[in-house]
Amino acid sequence: MDAGELQAAVDTARTKHGVPGVSVALYADGVLDLAASGIANVTSGVAMTTDTLMHVGSITKVMNCTLLMQLVDEGRVALERPVVEYLPGFRLGDAEATRAITIEMLVNHTSGIDGDLLPDDGHDGETIARTIERFSDLTQIHAPGRGRSYCNPATVVAGYLCQRIFDRSWYDLMKERLFGPLGMEHAAVLPEDALLFRASVGHFLNKATGKLKRTSHAFLPLGYAPAGSTAMMSAADLMSFARSHLADGVGQNGVRIISAESAARMQRRSGPASGPEAFECGLGWRLAGEFVSHGGGGPGIVSFLIAHPRSRTAAAVLTNAEHGFAVIADVIRPFFVARLQLDPFPPLPAATNEVVDAARYVGRYETINTVHEVEVHDGRLSWASYSTQKYYDSSPMQKPAPTPLIAAGNDRFLADSRASTMPATDTALIGFVEPDEYGRMQYLVENLWLFPRRSTPERGIST
Amino acid sequence: MNATRRKFLAGTIAGISSASGTSLWPRATFAAEPPSQPASTAIGDLTDASVLKDAIDAARAKYNVPGVSAAVYAGGRLAMATSGITNVATGVEVTPDTIMHIGSITKTFTATLVMQLVDEGKLALERPVIEYIPDFHDADPAATRIITVGELLNHTSGIDANLLPDAGHDKETIENTVVRIGQAPQLHAPERARSYCNAGMVVAGYLCQRVTGKSWYDLMKERIFQPLGLEHSVVLPEDAVLYRLSVGHYLNPTTKAPIRTPRAYLPLSYAPAGSTAMMNASDLMTWARAHMAGGVGPNGKRILTEASATRMRRRFGNVDGPEAFDCGIAWLRVNGLLHHEGGGPGIVSLLVTHPESQTAIVILTNADYGATLLRDLVRPFVKARLGIDTFQDPPKPLADATVNPAPYVGIYQNSSVVHEVEAKDGKLMWTAYARASYDRGLRTERLPTKTLLPIGNNKFLGDTSVVGFVDPDASGQTRYLQGDFWLYRRK
To answer: Which of B175, B238, B263 to mutate to test the interface with A (most CBs of A within 10 A)?
Structure first.
């Protein structure tokens, strides 16, 4: 695909899905292709360019983990040692978990800390250090190392640990130890630095009117910066970062940022010792087949970075719309299918229409900010999910009308994703794992999260 | 000294810090800057938007300022115009919606928040700060006991913490900074003098936080921006990202081209003094009109009692020593005008109001060297409309340049700048340097030594800067050097 074809493909996908702005970087066979399309902000009308900074969201976690691996390389932390050894003041609500959580568990999503996102403490109170203090109330989704559920707070702890051991702020570390060495000149981790660039912000789609609305908040709580609330960059710079991981820790400019061993270790499966897993993960990277990847979200943004290390092929797509995943898939899928005959977004399982025992699934599953209610509604196994934390413009607080769960085999179900708090695609895949002695599932799995069962109906239900 | 350098220093002692990157906020637009053109230069009726547009286009081109946003209100007519680009690195155009730094003009907002709380009976200007913030602590225990709320707002508290070094994003909170300000010494005893005091305004903003239990940022939004319908006004960097926005520029002395600032803001914790606020010229004009109308916005919403709005304009405080300028509550006063300047990393802004005639002008620029542009536009407007010429022509050295250096020789300083004054070959020599910079690693080199030429009344011309000496002691030695809005105490 030449530059013109890529531009046309990105323009088409963006227009088709009604996304305001997209920035793309594709890398294959040693060739980098860039494209930018649309506008950075519907209220300002500023055009997207390949220099425009866009939110990368949680892709930041891979960078954060890279900082941590620099500490490992320098012999200043060991992945298998407990966090409290390095942060004696670190406290969670669960004393035993506090003692047991290792450094590695912070970056492979097996710590079990239930603190997806805390309410924004306000600009003047929202510091990484203060956010860590607020973690002292958090409980566990599962015991440390006994499950894998996407865990924002653990990555914040990892960033704070880097801050403490390097004795530099996390923001400075990102600039001095990653952006600077890799020559990433269109990258910012501080909101006040983002201002210096052409910068994009998020948008939401009003489904009733079809109108795009700019987000009221440019960032998730700043104290969660190491988990990805603040980082913005061009797709080209994000690709520079990715290429260093495809080249054993050495950037395209020849500067090494981590050892080859650490780069490889990040791409190898890591933990948990036992327990349910919502997804597969190395250190920082999500693993799926031959791919390593990370997605990012934020107020009205979706971003995605995916790499195929064996062939040194990678794609970064940044969008400024909550519904931007459709554009990501439209750009990334054909790229990898054409190059490697591999689909990085395999289709959902088909409906099996089997008869299931509803009693195994019915119940209330809950984390700090999300409730899933599984019940029999109008004679059908049904599901409703809602957020218990208010986040800016989005997050429904009311329980929506339950939507039927359509059996798809192996305790998995398909459902209309409008009932989800985090609709990634039109159809949600809801799984159930870890049956107890009565066959009742102890966890609901949606996307990358485990939701532990918190209550069971008193009477058995059958359909 | 070459011409570029001179322009860079812009004829003010504040320029000293500009040279080292620590642009101090108010610029002496009204004090000592030599005009680049005669005061009589004709200017059209700026209340006509197309005339205003032509005027700012021309001025912007003349001074190579990247972007300008302006609003003029006179005779019940309102005109607005913008020109140029927001950022030389992006090339994005300035539009009427574009938010730009207002810098220290923010002080009029912070003072208004305080006056709202006075109106509500929650604060009294004459009461000591420590009554409301029991843990308020100044390095000087005597000052801690007596600094009043009012003294925070009229630059007479004497707290010597013009700007503190940036503590970094993750530590830069208003509350933490108030503790750090508390470790600063006094430049003068409270009410003993008046010297521009950023720290006082930060403490005032914090006071509002403590009394209301809300952050200063929320107070600005909820108590001012929302009631007045200011929809293009922000105080948080993370909110600014949502708008078309402008950032500062410096002039590259070699290429003569504007270069974008490496940082968008002064330290964030100085927000109540003006490090973060950004708005479009239109919103700032709405603000000016609310004050000129006695506390009622053009939308009819009252944000302040008439009595408080009036009180803010009147001379405030009984200063029994030297004063670097005249001041009400936050408003700077000169010849019946109430005004405020704003600075920041690579920005200069100006708001001038004349409540008596309900006339006001707002000019926001995104260039550190924008002061001459401001003056070129504002001086003829104010002169033609109001018959007031506040801008002075460049002072001329006296024909008899004989100086007795004895009263002046010495070292003078505040928390930011040191001035060394010495006698050499019968001449008075002056060297200044920034002693602290807000940014880690910035230069604090000495500026070239200049000869001080007398212009009378204990004032001298050092190149293009006016340096005064005030407050002689019994021996005749002056206790303070005055430059621009600042006093520097003899060491």
So the answer is: B238
